[in-house]
Structures are given as structure tokens and as C-alpha cells.
Amino acid sequence: MLGGTQSLHTNSMDETLALPTEEAVTVSLRTQQIIAEESGVANSIDPLGGSYVIEALTNRIEKEAFDYIKRIDDLGGIIKAINIGFPQKEIADAAYRYQLELDRGGRVIVGVNKYIADEEIPIQTLKIDEKVDAGQKERLNEIKKSRNNESVKSHLCSIADAARSGKNLMPFIIDAVREYATVGEISDIFREVYGVYRDPAYF
Q1: What residues are paired with 110 via a beta bridge?
Q2: Over the stretch 26-35, which tens digit does the pLDDT of each residue have?
Q3: How many Å apart are CA 35 and CA 47, to the nearest integer?
Q4: How many CA atoms lie within 13 A of 125 on its CB side?
Q5: Alpha helix ranges (H) inside the chain
């Protein structure tokens, strides 16, 4: 909000473990509502406008971003950079440096490497009844039985033809979905035409 974001999303505290519980969703929502209604930050168009710290950090981010773009351009573009593993290695190296900082205490994460609780506080997680899964599969099977499968097949072929010829795929995908082609079936067409990307192991 201080940085002037146009939208704000607060992850629920249990999202790394499961779908959010009602309690976790409510805590996230109330966090946003307190910022919007109580902090007063929304009353100013640019709360940190002119701040030296923010302006300096913005300039630094811009410079370092353009440095990366130039390095990628010098490699021949992002496709070639991906093929030689440049962005993958940069991400892996950054993750490694970040973990080292945590392990050595150079970067503090409260509750992880500082102010650690003696006992782990249990987090209630949402468990989906297996009947939901079974019900969804049953609904999918019913749709596949009741739809016009000849029409679906024809539309899937049209997607494949469009993919091979480099056409805009969206109109073909929309037509196929209207005939109840599934995401899986459409994805299978893409895998057939384009193949499956395997990240090269460079590190």
C-alpha cells in the first residue's frame, strides 16, 4: 500500500499446507480491511512520494533489471538463455544465497531463525472429503457420455491444426470448450504438437 499498489492479496497462513480454512481466510481478509480502513494509508495517492529510500531503491531495481535484460540480449534472447540454463542457474544461485543468509543469521526471519518458539504451534488445516473427488470424477464421466464426442474430436483436431500452423489458438480453444472438451484433452493436443519441455540440468 505504501508503494502505491493498485491491488493487494494477502495469502492465508496455511496456504503452504492445504486449501485455506475459514479462520485463515478471515485473518487474511481482516488484515487487508485494517490496512484499508484503519491505517489511513488509502487517504493519500502516494504515501511515500519523494522518499529518498524508496526512490533510491526504485532506481536500483530499474538499473539491475536493465542489466539483466542486457545480459539476456547478449546471449541471443530469452529462448537461447533458457536453452543454455542461464535463468534457471540464476534462480538456483539466488535461492542458495538466500538459504545461506538464513542459516548464518545474515537475514532474519522471525520464528524461523530468530525468536523461535519452544513448541511448534499447530495449524488447523482444511481436509477435503474424498467424496468430493469421487463426485467430480462422476460428473466428468457423465459429461463425456452426454456430450457430442464427434464434435469434440473435430474441435480438438482444429486446435492441433491451428497449433501447427501458428494461428491464434484462442478461438479454437473457446469453440472446443463450448462443446465440453476438457482442459486435459486440450493440453494433450499441445503436448502432441509442441512436445513436453524438460528443463536441462545444468547445475
Answers
A1: 114
A2: 999 999 999 8
A3: 13
A4: 11
A5: 22-37, 52-74, 78-83, 86-104, 130-146, 149-165, 170-178, 183-194
